[in-house]
Amino acid sequence: MTTALDLLLLALLLSLIVGLGRVWRGPGFADRMLAAQLLGTTGVAMLIVLAERFAQPALRDVALVLALLALLAVLAFVARVWDPDDAVEPTASADGAGSTGLVGEPGAAASGSDGPSSGDHRPRQSNGVGDDHG
Amino acid sequence: MRTTAATGQAIVSSRFWTRFAARCSALAGLWWILTEGSGGWGFAATVIPLIAWLGLRSAPARAHRIRPSRLPVFIVFFLHQSLRAGVDVAARTLKPSLPLQPALLRVPVALPAGAPTWWLMLIISLLPGTLSVRLEGRMLEFHCLDDRLAVERDLRHTEARIADLFGCDRKRPGVSAP
Amino acid sequence: MADSIMDGVRLLLITAGVAFFIIGSIGLIRFPDVYTRIHALTKADNLGLGLIVIGLLLGAGSLATSAKLVLIWLLTLVASASAGYLVARAARRRGVKPWQAKDTPPAKGDDTPPPQSGGH
Q1: Partner-chain contact B143 C39, CB within 8 Å
Q2: DSSP per residue, A68-123
Q3: Is C94 on the interface with B (CB under 8 A)?
Q4: Which residues in chain C have Cβ-Cβ distances shorter than 8 Å to A81?
Q5: Window 11-40 of C, Cβ < 8 Å to B
Q6: For chain B, what are the domain ranges?
Q7: d(Cα B129, Cα B149) in Å, to the nearest integer?
């Protein structure tokens, strides 16, 4: 049983490496983002098999955390790096809007809530990375 | 007058305590699973009622709730479809000719907004050949691997299953306001 | 005797699960665009993980451990379906066009919305 599980773990590692080949080649940015999903699911599979193979129940907790972190990585990527709403949104306009009174309708201010968080001053160009690396 | 108000109050509060008890048992179950039954119940017993109470106080009542009695049927449906989806995509991957005929399709969602629609969007991504791409109003745009498949029939079927799970109505597709 | 049969069944299930992971990775390499690759990744990997989880919980020592394995699978399902949807939506908003088979007629215009599929 243990030898078989060792072999299966190796096979999972192999599939992870094959999948990472796609991430390496891209070509689009979204293809690279699939890495988080791939690492998440394959990582979870490897961890629960490892927990069985080495009788380490704590590894199952690691699997739970990994599943959550993989989702967080995708969320962060989509929200901050790649979503075009970010690219269109003028930076740092939300801060001053309230003081003028005429422009700053509460609804208008709220509609811009998807914009980049304050203190995040990436150069605009970084939003457009990736599509033409090929 | 006073008596009706009092009974109304009593009904509300008895419902509150029922939901409180249900939530406490759900959290206790989660604790048991996460600790793999290894104890720590002293800590759990202090924290669980607190979380359950805070949750009920702060979260608004949900418009759509899952009916536990329908869960087994739904789980069987879901497992069967997951199996079909995995086998379908694996067969396509392994065929040398790579039989794909992808398309983006739009269909009106018949389920009410909120939890039922979210369930639909997540679940069709795990069904054979479909992947949610975006939701605009009540129109769902999805990608399908092969438009020769009966994807829309599958989608309507899934909607019916979710409506049954939540006990909610469906609008008939195509009748929705422009 | 019964134990060795059980071990065999478990190994079979886990091996099948690992096979789906490998197929998912092959699909990731072979499929032509990001949307189809998401199909390969979410569906194959989740079935693979499900089979591995069933295989492992057949020999799990306690009920709580089995429940935890199922919880891990459910969480991964939700995470994976959400992640696939988010990446697909981001790609669509960025205007990434889906790959089309050669024998299907190309879309009429660049920015026309996709055709509404016929209702019943």
Answers
A1: yes
A2: HHHHHHHHHIIIIII-HHHHHSPTT-HHHHHHHSSS--HHHHHHTTTSPPTT----
A3: no
A4: none
A5: 20, 23-24, 26-27, 30-33, 35-36, 38-40
A6: 2-58, 68-166
A7: 8
Residues near C34 by beta carbon (within 8 Å), at least 6 away in sequence: A28, A30, A31, A34, C87, C88, C91, C96
For the CA atoms of B23, B24, B29, B35, what is the dihedral angle to 10 degrees?
A: 130
SS3 content of chain C, % helix, strand, coil (to 5): 70, 0, 30
Q: Any bridge partners for residue B141, and if so which?
A: B106, B134
DSSP code of residue B167 = T
- Torsion angle of alpha carbons A15, A21, A22, A28, nearest 10°? 150
The mean pLDDT value for B33-62 works out to 84
Ramachandran region of residue C117, left (φ > 0), alpha (ψ -120 to 50) or beta?
beta
Backbone angles phi, psi at B134, to 5 degrees: -165, 165
Interface residue of B34, B125, B134 to substitute, partner C, most C CBs within 10 Å: B125
* pLDDT over 90 (residue B7): no
CB B149 within 8 A of CB B87: no
CA angle C83, A114, A75 (to 5 degrees): 20
Segments of chain A with pLDDT less than 50: 86-134
Q: Enumerate residues 6+ apart whose C-beta is below 8 A from A53.
A: A2, A5, A6, A9
Domain ranges of chain A: 28-83
Where helices occur in B98-150 by DSSP H, the ranges are 115-124
* Closest-CA residue to B105 (of B89, B92, B124): B124
Which chain C residues have a beta carbon less than 8 Å from that of B87? 47
Nearest-CA distance B17 → chain A (Å): 31
Residue with tokens 């995470």: C79
Q: What type of residue is A84?
A: P
Low-confidence ranges of chain C (pLDDT < 50): 105-120
Domain ranges of chain C: 2-93
